[in-house]
From TrEMBL:
The keyword Lipid metabolism does not apply. PANTHER family: FERMITIN 2-RELATED (PTHR16160), FERMITIN FAMILY HOMOLOG 1 (PTHR16160:SF12). GO terms for cellular component: cell projection; focal adhesion. The lineage of its organism: Eukaryota, Metazoa, Chordata, Craniata, Vertebrata. This is FERM1 protein.
Length: 676
């Protein structure tokens, strides 16, 4: 025991501000403390002085100057580094947050501002009934992407009553543990696999959650498309540099919202960050599938990802006309027959392979008999684009290499050239209407990329060779179990593109606004009546699809685009005098020329030995096999974002269907957190 005089000589005054709603009670308190007082004791001392009878269990100390929470209640003030000049804020850990979802709907809910973003997103996804929360994260919109909207809103005041779905009464968002029934593997509300509606026998599972049947419909269904005026107000990237701005605002998953400057009732975007959609199941994932579909839809409408005119019309027919029509139709509420359910399961199976979500180690390879392809193809050399440069050769595809010979008789001898496709970029060059089936190969060499174009004669030949090239680029052979599903996926996409200009119903009598269904580039190119006619022609090939199948096919078509899954950043490579663009995908990094958009070099994650960050100079350094190493600084965003992307994709590649849905959060932070 020490005397009061000795206590006073060692003690000092600490200013604490309390965040409460009682107007008649002061908010600032001066407490007499010593350095060996622990945080829990400080809380007790403060609450005794406040003299307000309420539940303080969600309150914690926020240290404003240091931008951090003091959550370890057994730590002393000395251990935390708190001294007399510190200003502590005693506030709730769970606060209101507005989230704009991929379908552009805004929800308002209570979120933990004190736990790391990775865990906060997990809690948010439990409320919204979205499985696999590790695929999503939060984005803060940058000033550049908001400028256009601000200009529009300068003279017109924004309505005070925004259309917001209020989910603030959720057990999870109130800081309590969420009902395990809402998210467990066995008790997740079951959805109709065709229409996406919650099955009537399980809708009662929503009763303790704000996610009622009506709210579920808002999240699981597509709603009427926005007007062309609304579309024009949204940020549309024109260049690679513009696209890089879209990826600058990802929050750090290893820090809390408060630590990153997010305030109560701020608006953030909830988006799928990692393009590896794992274990999609229409019975449980109606909300998740719809939100993936919506993110893809908006990416295409706002030209965040490039596609051809033919592809744009397919997207318009699928997403805009067919899905919107079925979503509004009472037919979508009907229960499916067995055959329809089988079709959806088949489409889903193809989609899972296409999106590379699963563990790819289980390949059915017979090392004694690796399949091969051999056929006549035409080769086009890029620097000689005259007709004379197109010449037919006998091509043989074996393992992960293509060899070509003057003719079939010469195939027993030495090839004219052998192309190793491991690590190459494979780009489709297809126009079904013009019977053009091309494969563009960008093959990595010491000083960049060599280009080669292969021309196929028909759909079947193209699908087989394209699938083989795609697998070879990942280091897989045609013996891999994903080869035949890949061929089937390509043929399905070609079939959707293969429509004929048949007579359609009078376009003028059709209640369709094509400006809502295609990107602005095509509304400027064609008249409205022309677009309606072409969308209706494309719709013939998809008109028999069910609602969920149409969404899955849309996602699959999105995945088939060359730019799918690429997140862009402006970087400066070590030793370079100019800026480049770095594309980050689920399995590779691509160095891209910022002026032309052409790929320069590709590095596969499978060849990566290690990566690290020099936090002092904010430089990312990566080592690959064969003594290849690169280093770069990021100019369009914090280097932590790229570091987290790489670690995040490696973390997601460790998932398997054998595991339960609990995640190894420690492993995620080891791979993504860094040591700043």
């Amino acid at each position: 025991m020490i005397s009061s005089k000795e206590y006073e000589s060692h003690s000092w005054e600490l200013l604490v501000t309390v965040d409460h709603q009682h107007q008649e009670v002061q908010k600032g308190f001066l407490l007499q403390v010593t350095g060996d007082l622990h945080i829990g004791g400080l809380m007790l001392k403060l609450v005794e002085q406040i003299k307000i009878s309420q539940d303080w269990s969600d309150y914690a100390f926020w240290w404003e100057q240091k931008k951090r929470w003091l959550l370890k209640t057994h730590w002393t003030l000395d251990k935390c580094g708190v001294q007399a000049d510190a200003k502590l804020f005693f506030t709730t850990q769970h606060k209101m947050l507005r989230l704009r979802l991929p379908n552009m709907k805004t929800v308002r809910l209570k979120v933990s501002f004190s736990c790391v973003v990775f865990r906060a997103v997990s809690d948010i996804c439990k409320i919204l009934n979205i499985r696999r929360s590790e695929e999503l994260s939060l984005v803060k919109q940058s000033e550049d992407t908001l400028k256009k909207k601000k200009k529009k809103d300068k003279n017109s005041k924004e309505p005070a009553t925004e259309d917001i779905l209020n989910l603030c009464n959720s057990p999870v968002s109130s800081g309590l543990s969420g009902s395990p029934g809402l998210y467990s593997k066995t008790m997740t509300p079951t959805y109709d696999p065709i229409s996406g509606t919650p099955a009537s026998s399980t809708i009662t599972w929503f009763s303790d959650s704000p996610l009622t049947e009506q709210n579920c419909s808002v999240l699981a269904f597509s709603h009427p498309n926005c007007s062309p005026e609304t579309l024009a107000e949204l940020y549309q990237p024109r260049t690679l540099a513009d696209k890089a701005k879209l990826n600058a605002g990802w929050l750090d998953s290893s820090r809390s919202l408060m630590e990153q400057g997010i305030l109560e009732d701020d608006q953030l975007l909830l988006r799928f960050k990692y393009y590896t959609f794992f274990d999609l199941n229409p019975k449980y994932d109606a909300v998740r599938i719809n939100q993936i579909y919506e993110q893809a839809r908006w990416a295409i409408l706002l030209e965040e990802i490039d596609c051809t005119e033919e592809e744009m019309l397919i997207f318009a027919a699928l997403q805009a006309y067919h899905v919107s029509k079925l979503s509004l139709s009472s037919e979508a509420q009907d229960f499916p027959c067995e055959s329809e359910a089988d079709e959806v399961e088949a489409a889903l199976s193809n989609l899972e392979v296409a999106l590379e979500g699963g563990n790819s180690s289980k390949t059915l390879e017979d090392i004694t008999d690796i399949p091969k392809l051999a056929d006549n193809l035409r080769l086009v050399r890029p620097k000689k684009l005259s007709l004379k440069a197109i010449k037919q050769y006998w091509f043989v595809f074996r393992d992960t290499s293509i060899s070509y010979f003057k003719n079939q008789e010469c195939a027993q001898g030495e090839p004219i050239e052998k192309l190793n496709l491991k690590g190459c970029e494979v780009v489709p060059d297809v126009n079904v209407a013009a019977k053009k089936f091309g494969i563009k190969l960008l093959i990595p060499v010491a000083d960049g990329m060599n280009e080669a174009y292969l021309r196929c004669e028909n759909e079947n030949q193209y699908a087989q060779w394209m699938a083989a090239c795609v697998l070879a680029s990942k280091g897989k052979t045609m013996a891999d179990s994903s080869y035949h599903p890949e061929v089937h996926k390509i043929l399905s996409f070609l079939k959707m593109k293969n429509w004929t200009a048949q007579a359609v119903s009078d376009p003028e009598s059709t209640d369709m606004k094509p400006e809502c269904f295609v990107s602005p580039r095509y509304t400027k190119k064609y008249k409205s009546k022309q677009l309606v006619t072409r969308i209706l022609e494309a719709h013939q090939n998809v008109s028999q699809m069910t609602l969920v199948e149409a969404k899955l096919r849309f996602i699959q078509a999105w995945q088939s685009l060359p730019e799918f899954g690429l997140s862009y950043y402006i970087v400066r490579f070590k030793g370079s005098k100019k800026d480049d663009v770095l594309g980050v995908s689920y399995n590779r990094l691509i160095r891209i020329d910022i002026a032309t958009g052409d790929p320069i070099t590709t590095w596969r994650f499978s060849n990566m030995k290690q990566w690290n960050v020099n936090w002092e100079i904010r430089q990312v350094a990566i080592e690959f096999d064969q003594n290849v190493s690169i280093a770069f600084t990021c100019l369009s965003a914090d280097c932590k974002i790229i570091h987290e992307y790489i670690g995040g994709y490696i973390f997601l590649s460790t998932r398997s269907k054998d595991q339960n849905e609990t995640l190894d959060e420690d492993l995620f932070h080891k791979l993504t957190g860094g040591q700043e």
